[in-house]
């Protein structure tokens, strides 16, 4: 939060004033840079254009005494500290100019000022301010400081404001979702809007490149919100009977599954996509995603991000699904046990899963009853990761299997550094 003292620090200027004939020059020094700003009488201020209308930057306000108090006495510019006072009156032209400064000059101070005004103004003045901001909602949403202004409006409990923002960015949802600033606006919309407003966003995103959005570093966060949405609009809703004529309630997972067919593994092996997969696996219609991950579980297990999905399955999967995951992991132990991420997935199945006893027994049988068991153990010992994996396995085996493995190691004359 910013208070008067903070704003005073932000808006104060430093420099020297020298009088010249008919004009004052203010010399502002900032490090090695110098800029000359000319101060002219208010009457000579240039006209600015807003939507084809020529308006002065400084139009008069209702109380003439406020005009001079809102101007810096040295250069005729806006005095933001005075304008923050509750009794201060800011007209529409000034608001439009401030919005333009945020977009064109990435003006942080103008954004802070308008956010403060949003908190202090009451209707109808609040509506005037919101109208001036939402007039440029699209460029503000993707602006470094403008996106905070849009999010501040979304905090206001007024559905009409949210609908206006959605209408302003309609057709550009995908680009905004991929923007590093715009993604926060869409996430805020999905978090604060009622279901029928969320559907307007979701319907447009589902028509775009779903697979690209799923793995995009910014858009993936929006898709996480989309997949968390629980649509509750029904035909019998007496409060919003017209909604069913305006939008449709999509089967989100059916559309996502169709778009992501054959791409789930690639998605799971990315940093942002792995989080998406974990959200998808919680859905009832996640069978297509689960089966594709299962059919390529080795490729996922040896990947930095894919291994997190495999471990998530070990922790959250149902008993039937967990049995399938565990079996496939154990049967791939030769490849996984010498890989850092693969070994972690194996150990998770052996120690954390509800099928851990089954996993330990299956691994013991495969390791000790394999015709090439001596060669397999030698391969594991030659790898630092594999050797450590054997140490962990020995501690999990039953006494009988533990003795059999030690006998195998000794009889094969393998140098395994263990405390036997």
From TrEMBL:
<feature type="repeat" description="Pumilio">
    <location>
        <begin position="132"/>
        <end position="167"/>
    </location>
</feature>
<dbReference type="InterPro" id="IPR016024">
    <property type="entry name" value="ARM-type_fold"/>
</dbReference>
<dbReference type="InterPro" id="IPR011989">
    <property type="entry name" value="ARM-like"/>
</dbReference>
<feature type="repeat" description="Pumilio">
    <location>
        <begin position="292"/>
        <end position="327"/>
    </location>
</feature>
<dbReference type="Pfam" id="PF00806">
    <property type="entry name" value="PUF"/>
</dbReference>
<protein>
    <recommendedName>
        <fullName>PUM-HD domain-containing protein</fullName>
    </recommendedName>
</protein>
<feature type="domain" description="PUM-HD">
    <location>
        <begin position="72"/>
        <end position="420"/>
    </location>
</feature>
<dbReference type="GO" id="GO:0010608">
    <property type="term" value="P:post-transcriptional regulation of gene expression"/>
</dbReference>
<dbReference type="GO" id="GO:0005737">
    <property type="term" value="C:cytoplasm"/>
</dbReference>
<dbReference type="InterPro" id="IPR001313">
    <property type="entry name" value="Pumilio_RNA-bd_rpt"/>
</dbReference>
<keyword id="KW-0677">Repeat</keyword>
<feature type="repeat" description="Pumilio">
    <location>
        <begin position="168"/>
        <end position="203"/>
    </location>
</feature>
<dbReference type="GO" id="GO:0003730">
    <property type="term" value="F:mRNA 3'-UTR binding"/>
</dbReference>
<dbReference type="InterPro" id="IPR033133">
    <property type="entry name" value="PUM-HD"/>
</dbReference>
């Amino acid at each position: 939060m910013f208070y008067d003292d903070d704003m005073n620090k932000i808006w104060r200027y430093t420099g020297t004033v020298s009088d010249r004939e008919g004009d004052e020059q203010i010399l502002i020094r900032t490090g090695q840079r110098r800029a000359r700003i000319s101060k002219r009488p208010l009457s000579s201020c240039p006209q600015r254009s807003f939507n084809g209308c020529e308006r002065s930057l400084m139009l008069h306000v209702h109380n003439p005494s406020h005009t001079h108090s809102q101007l810096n006495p040295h250069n005729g510019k806006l005095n933001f500290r005075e304008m923050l006072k509750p009794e201060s009156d800011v007209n529409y032209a000034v608001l439009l100019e401030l919005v333009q400064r945020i977009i064109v000059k990435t003006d942080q101070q103008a954004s802070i000022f308008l956010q403060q005004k949003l908190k202090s103004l009451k209707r109808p003045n609040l509506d005037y301010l919101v109208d001036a901001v939402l007039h440029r909602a699209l460029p503000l949403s993707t602006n470094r400081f403008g996106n905070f202004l849009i999010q501040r409006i979304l905090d206001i409990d007024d559905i009409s404001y949210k609908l206006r923002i959605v209408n302003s960015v309609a057709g550009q949802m995908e680009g905004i979702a991929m923007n590093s600033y715009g993604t926060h606006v869409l996430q805020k919309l999905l978090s604060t809007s009622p279901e029928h407003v969320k559907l307007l966003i979701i319907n447009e995103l589902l028509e775009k490149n779903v697979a690209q959005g799923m793995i995009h570093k910014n858009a993936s966060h929006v898709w996480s919100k989309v997949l968390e949405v629980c649509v509750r609009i029904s035909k019998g809703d007496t409060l919003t009977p017209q909604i069913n004529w305006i939008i449709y309630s999509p089967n989100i997972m059916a559309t996502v599954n169709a778009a992501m067919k054959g791409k789930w593994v690639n998605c799971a092996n990315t940093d942002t996509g792995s989080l998406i997969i974990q959200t998808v696996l919680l859905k009832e219609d996640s069978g297509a995603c689960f089966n594709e991950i299962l059919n390529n579980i080795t490729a996922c297990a040896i990947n930095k991000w894919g291994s997190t999905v495999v471990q998530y399955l070990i922790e959250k999967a149902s008993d039937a699904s967990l049995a399938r995951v565990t079996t496939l992991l154990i049967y791939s132990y030769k490849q996984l046990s010498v890989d850092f991420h693969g070994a972690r997935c194996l150990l998770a199945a052996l120690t954390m899963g509800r099928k851990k006893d089954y996993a330990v027994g299956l691994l013991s049988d495969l390791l000790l009853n394999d015709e090439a068991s001596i060669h397999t153990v030698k391969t594991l010992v030659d790898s630092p990761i594999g050797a450590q994996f054997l140490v962990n396995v020995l501690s999990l085996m039953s006494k009988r299997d533990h003795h059999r493995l030690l006998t195998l190691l000794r009889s094969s004359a393998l140098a395994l550094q263990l405390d036997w």
